[in-house]
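Lecture notes, part 5. Sequence design as translation. It can be helpful to think of inverse folding as translation between two languages: the language of shapes and the language of residues. The source text, in structure tokens, appears below.
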């Protein structure tokens, strides 16, 4: 069975990504009827985190539990991840214990190191470059909240804000799927040229479009979805005054900006948010906001993704094989510990 990882949506075709989203929607539908199939019974997942998390950690752990498996949460500093032993040794050893690894690493290179040496699927739960599980969930949320009858290829998505790891992933998945993507940001915080180049390459195949502007009002004019993210992250605290000065007030998603978009436009945020900074309470709690549906969809997305990657790899013993092994072990135990075995029968 080919070993498949989930590190970057760029590794998958439009058809594969749509297939994955279809599977996620089926699993979500089953969940809503309390009928989630136990497709990953006895599956173990290691969750390696170099940074804290609410949504990613909980959605993966609950997701695998609902599918019949279980997760080990290995919080920052809990295991040797490139410290005291090589990353290769950690990846090879962890792969001997579990069926799948989900990781959040500070640097994308660490993620690629895990992938290089792991012998089970690795899922990227955020790096300094991208957040692919988040944006699969975002596309699912867009499909659910788009105007009735509107084709995916006609969706207009405007990201107002910094060129974060979420921006890179969203720009790449939207253009991969043939959607129309705009980033509105001050020049200094716009997507770097190589991300734009990849997005333009995607558009050549998919028919989508990508552009970057420093005019937020023009950028939201025809938007079906306005998306924003934090203006600074851990480690960027020293830049807060200059970042605030660059983004505020024009790039804050407030009711003035939201009203410049069509009435059907929905507001999205991957969370966590700094309320009152990149978006106001009024917007985040408005009827146009879908942030909690979006957060819930992380759970359905993780379940679909886990099934997609792990289910085809599961070993399935026949009834006969199970009986042969059980009887051999039983015979051994009886020969060595007959008293105890009989007491337990
Ligand atoms: N959106 C997201 O990844 O949230 P967490 O950092 O809480 O996992």
């Amino acid at each position: 069975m080919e070993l498949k990882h989930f590190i970057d949506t760029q590794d998958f075709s439009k058809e594969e990504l749509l297939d994955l989203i279809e599977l996620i929607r089926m699993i979500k539908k089953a969940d809503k009827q309390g009928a989630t199939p136990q497709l990953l019974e006895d599956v173990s997942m290691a969750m390696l985190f170099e940074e804290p998390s609410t949504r990613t950690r909980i959605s993966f752990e609950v997701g695998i539990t609902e599918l019949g498996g279980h997760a080990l949460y290995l919080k920052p500093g809990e295991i040797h991840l490139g410290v005291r032993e090589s990353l290769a040794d950690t990846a090879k050893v962890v792969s001997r214990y579990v069926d799948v690894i989900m990781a959040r690493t500070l640097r994308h290179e660490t993620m690629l190191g895990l992938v290089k040496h792991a012998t089970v699927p690795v899922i990227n739960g955020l790096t300094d470059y991208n957040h692919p599980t988040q944006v699969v969930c975002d596309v699912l949320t867009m499909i659910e909240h788009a105007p009735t009858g509107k084709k995916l290829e006609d969706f207009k998505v405007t990201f107002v804000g910094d060129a974060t790891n979420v921006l890179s992933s969203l720009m790449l998945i939207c253009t991969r799927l043939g959607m129309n993507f705009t980033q509105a940001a001050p020049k200094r915080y716009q997507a770097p040229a190589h991300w734009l180049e990849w997005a333009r390459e995607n558009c050549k195949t998919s028919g989508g479009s990508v552009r970057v502007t420093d005019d937020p009002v023009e950028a939201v004019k025809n938007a079906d979805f306005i998306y924003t993210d934090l203006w600074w992250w851990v480690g960027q605290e020293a830049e807060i005054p200059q970042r605030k000065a660059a983004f505020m007030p024009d790039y804050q998603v407030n009711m003035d900006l939201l009203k410049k978009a069509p009435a059907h436009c929905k507001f999205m945020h991957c969370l966590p948010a700094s309320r009152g900074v990149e978006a106001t309470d009024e917007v985040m709690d408005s009827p146009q906001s879908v942030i909690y549906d979006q957060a819930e969809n992380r759970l359905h997305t993780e379940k679909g993704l886990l099934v997609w990657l792990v289910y085809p790899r599961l070993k399935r013993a026949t009834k006969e094989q199970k009986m042969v092994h059980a009887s051999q072990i039983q015979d051994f135990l009886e020969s060595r510990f007959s008293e105890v075995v009989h007491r337990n029968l």
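The translated text above is only one of many valid answers, since several sequences can fold into similar shapes. The mean pLDDT is 96.
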